[in-house]
Amino acid sequence: MRWFILILMFFGAMISFADKSIVGLAAVPIMEEFNLSYVEWGLVGSCYYWLYPVTGPFGASWADRIGAKKILGFLMISWSILQFGVLAIAALPFLLLYRVLLGAFGGPYSPIAYSHLDKWFAKEKGLANSAIVGGGTIGAMVIAPVLVSLITIFGWKVAFASLGVASLIWFFLFQFFTKESPIAVYKKEEKKQIEKLEKFNLKEFVSLMIRPTPLFTVLAYASVYMLIIWFTIWCPIYLVEVVQLSAAQMGYSIATIGIASIVIYTGVSMISDYLFKKNQDWRISRIYVVTISMAIGALLLASIIIFPNPIWVVSALCLSKGLTYAILVIAPTIMINEKRESGGLMSSMLTSFGSLAGIVAPVLTGYIISLAAGDKIAGYNFSVLFMAALVLTFGILFGIFVKPALSRNKVAKKNISNEVDLVN
After folding, report:
1. Residues 282-295: pLDDT tens digits?
2. The CATH number of 2-423 is which of 3.40.50.2300, 3.90.700.10, 1.20.1250.20, 3.40.50.300?
3. Which of 42, 203, 293, 403 could lock onto 323 through a cystine, CB 3.0 to 4.6 A?
4. How far apart are CA 55 and CA 46, in angstroms?
5. Which residues form the Major facilitator superfamily (MFS) profile domain (predicted)?
């Protein structure tokens, strides 16, 4: 059952990220159809995240209370309706409204999925989280050639609607073939968690979030989320306009970057899990692994400015994406461990603050490009350098300030032991 749930969470993340990223693959026909400027296109990319920070925590906390199945099912039905509704879009305001609503109903998915898998996987948390991030990567990049083909042959609206069909199929599989928790015994634990959630104290929660561990975990996550937006919204255009790839070459390059990055950050997460099982040390197994990965990934990203050869650009982007995305896999585990009875809410802090970055990133990138006074190559290079510096800075801060207490390690061991007993 848990492996089937893991597979569905993987495909759910794939649909979610395909929903949000397909607009980048359809950038050229959409911009031509609505006669959009770069700044207006940045607005289209940004508006997806306007309600994301609000609906993420709200939906995740409700899932903590009434169960993941109900909320995830509702989200999938909403995605399906919105994607079918694309067929009626005839002007920019309607496109913006569609993106805003899609982001609103997309916000809760990842935190709920992280928290839901945390119930089912006692020791392989890094691997389980990698499935969600991996699904997102495939949805955003790996299936790009398929989506580009659909856009080319049938038009961008039909391609969008096809994702609505995928959401509908996922809904029926998840609702009728999975369970809420590993075993009936877990219902007692859920009842205790609900009682604790009913006594939720906002002041206590804010006090928790400003501690160094959750604060700098969220900031490091948000910095990489800005890079996610760059990969989603601007990377396809960068490969075409700067690297001079054809549309087909761009699609296959995006897929290559996505596949390679999945292998890399899954490998990093497995190394982290292995080290944690071996020494139970959060600093070594989680923090240092992520910090080193983010630093190397940021430097590789910056290198494409110096070496603009297409082969090196695609290779560097493969490595950069895979290494920097390690924070996406490890951060939910760190946050959930801070307050386990509110796992969905804690992980939603990551996606919500990441979405704040998502609001700023597309517009900021468009503004940076426009500052180059007509020199698009210089503008894109400035944006790449900015993203690399951001990830490098917050990766180092993450390594310095995120220090889970030793006593918390003991609690983590006890939690793992209890979860193993429950799953067994």
Report:
1. 888 889 999 999 99
2. 1.20.1250.20
3. 293
4. 16
5. 5-407
